[in-house]
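Run RNA 3'-terminal phosphate cyclase through structure prediction, thanks.
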Amino acid sequence: MTDKLIIDGSHGEGGGQILRSALSLSAITGRPVRIEKLRANRKKPGLAAQHLTSVRAAAMLCDAEVKGAELGSQTLQFIPRKPVRAGDYFLDVAHAREGGSAGAVMLVLQTLLPPLALATGVSNVMLRGGTHVDMSPSYDYVHDVWLPTLARMGVRAELSLMRSGWYPVGRGEVKLRIEGAEKLLPLRLEHRGPLRAVTGRALVANLPAHICERMAAHARYLLEQAGMAAKIETVVMKAACPGAGLYLTAHYENSLAGFGAQGKRGKPAEQVAEEACFALLQHYRSGAALEQHLADQLILPTALCRGESVFGVERISPHLVTNAWVVERFGLARIDIVPAADGTGFVKILASG
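Sure, done. The structure for RNA 3'-terminal phosphate cyclase is below.
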């Protein structure tokens, strides 16, 4: 496809997911895009370091011609010139801004993975930046929840943490290995089945060990009060700056669900545990197969499958609805979002391929 697609970056939720999904799909389809009013609904509109790194990453995959790839830019033109190539790639979010950045490398990874998952051959990607950053998927979430769910669709990817990176310095490092697949399989997750286990990790970097021990102990207590036994590891690690967080995974018979909370100066370890446990219990009581974040992160991959995918979701978020809108603009799938009276819902993706 050579006709340029114009995308309104202020549509719906109006955040960075519009950019990332458009970049992935443009690289995959070869269709040029122009995104206007980028991140218009954010306090600081336009491209931040993490978004600029995603643009550079996608451009590397398909030798794209890019215009407007600058910090703060609210208009971007992206024109793929070649099919996506498997290979070895390196990206550092710190290179996108003078003085460095703790921009979320997991979001850059989520831009790269769909195109490389369909490319012929093996790719090795090294990413540097923030691995555990608020308001974005953590390394633990991607490793424990997102990638295992994609594996059910035929995505063959392995992720390893070389060094953790926290706000505000970053400098974490992850390695991703992806073996391209000829096709992806539809995903059906209408029902999660019974809860089998809850696992987790309480992490601290450059901080006393008692902080992660308190997070883990309080989380175990809260979940035990709800009738759940949880196996939570405590991990003390080194990083370029201090950081802390708790990351939990609910293992259901048919699905996985991930929850996390970040620590910060002045925030008690117990509060971090309460935030992560509250999110887990809220999802558990909803009865839905997927938590809201995983659902919106599966919209794009399922649109690349052959056939119909269906999943139940705890909450139909503006993020999910906006991401579905972007995917439909490329004509790859029809997406039906069916809300229920209790706030949960189902998402049906009928891929046209």
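DSSP finds eight helices and 16 strands in the chain.
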